[in-house]
Fold each of these.
Amino acid sequence: MAAYQTIVDLIRTSANAVSPTGFFVHGRRSDGSLEYNESFPQIHLYPFTTNPTGASDHINVANIVMAFWGQDSPESSNEEREAIIAAMDVLSDSFLSNLDENQIEIFGIRKEPQYRTLSATLSGYAITFNMRVFISPC
């Protein structure tokens, strides 16, 4: 299977495991913003790069960029936004734990709170990390 599809499938599986009633989407940020009417929380996988470590061992290191979004609004109070961001922090931690439980090696994790993004309608957490993935030969 191709590296791209393997990685998207791994991320999707963990996203759905930690947020079964939420919504997962992958693509550019603008692709995600088109999904404003879908259920929350939303987990977005943005474009990522891969670094194959060698053709013979079928290992790729993927540099992942994701966002965990909760519904916000331009009228929300600081306390309401703080609660949304805190909940998405917990959700992103659960996601990373789920990946780890599935024996996916993750490292270089960086997390950053996000405030009223995409027309001030979403708040949450952005995360970046690297994951080492075995890609089965075609």
Note: The longest strand covers residues 59-71.
Amino acid sequence: MPYEFTRGGSGQITAAELVNGVFDQIEAGFYDALYPEILWREVLPADSVKTDINPGAMNYVYRSRDKKGQGQFVQGDAKNIPRVGQVVGQVTVPILDAAVGASLTDAEARRHQFGYQSALAQDYGEVMKQAGEYHIERTFFFGNDAVNFAPFLDYATVDKIPTDAWVGAGPEEWVSSINDALTAVWTNSKTVHLPDTVFLPPAKFAMLTGAYVIGAGAVGVAVSALEYLKNNNIYTAQTGKPLNIRALRYLEGAGLAGVDRCIIMEWNPRNFV
């Protein structure tokens, strides 16, 4: 479901609200309403965020290069010597303007200043900055069909693994399925890509923190399925590092027909250009 950033109230201030009793002790500042944290910076590697683009640019372009050619043994007069080459391409990403605004009159600012001892213009600036972050959050995770921005949660070119078997599955099935998916990415890419990160819906992440018995009978050892999975997978076997497993609330109901989805990926800045 698309994330909407909304705030309650109309923002109107009445004269009665500005009157503080002489016997009231007024605490400075406000207790702000709490909202779920913004996550796009946690999912997107910092090095893949382009902050040095010319302000006048209309597009961001990155180039790609593919090399070709392979040596072979020379025969006879050496006329069979192969030639190498390369194919150069480029990808163009449109740069679009986004904005958010607020309306403020001098009278409103004065009432706010005297009533709450707070600068309304500064407060609005903070709200607008947060609103801009929520726009990035929604666009990154859910995309925008109107401007052809693909959603991170359902990117068309990423292979989908059917999740029917995961509905109602326990820790053992999830551990096995995630390991199978890690292996599939690694082998299908001819070992070019080795996934190091798994994002799970919060409820499934929490389920994996429960006790998980390894072995059988009296020799069985109980650990959490999460801990077991972190250290028993193809990524850890190849690198000696634990698998990165994290909860991502947007994955709840993000799969086909509203089932939960997990995302398995190689957390590398070049994969996010």
Note: The mean pLDDT is 85.
Amino acid sequence: QSKAYNTGMIQELQNMQFEYVKGTPQQKEALASVIIHRAADYDTNKLPADLRQFIDGLRQERLSVR
């Protein structure tokens, strides 16, 4: 995974995080699925701490709902 790939992934996830924060409950549900899916095969240790915590929080919410 190149530096450009990592930078692009971080930017994409940050953009989705921004959309999630300002979204409606329905939008948040859809975005959470997309964010979790996009981050699934990515080494989250390469993410900034705040973004990693956000994604971990989404995953925890999903587990607690089930």
Note: DSSP finds three helices and no strands in the chain.
Amino acid sequence: MSPVFRRPSPLGLALAGDMLLAAALVCAARHPALVEGIYHDALFAALAPPLGWLADRIPFSVHELLAVLLLVFALRGLVRLIRGLRTGENRSRTFRDCLRRAFITVSLLVIGFYVLWGFNYFRPRLVDSPSFDRNL
């Protein structure tokens, strides 16, 4: 297979996703009305019903599940790091691989958080909306 068509690396995809997220966060901070129109009224409105249905069916919160998964990934990475150091592998390669996996995992979690909920923090405040009655 030619080098032009090789599969992208997970690290490269994570970096590209992080750069897109950073650009989206800058845009969201400057233009909250776009967040309301694009994210909340389109994407979040489509994601909320199935995710709400799923959250109602499981006896624990999705937050707890993500915390446990992160802990499992961290322990797995620590075990791989210790095993790699004990077996006499190249230490710099072992550390590099461990850091790469940790970066990819954290990047995916952060991107997932913002897509599933985090951009709601950039929506216009309710008290700033024209329909808010300040005389109550």
Note: The chain has a mean pLDDT of 84.
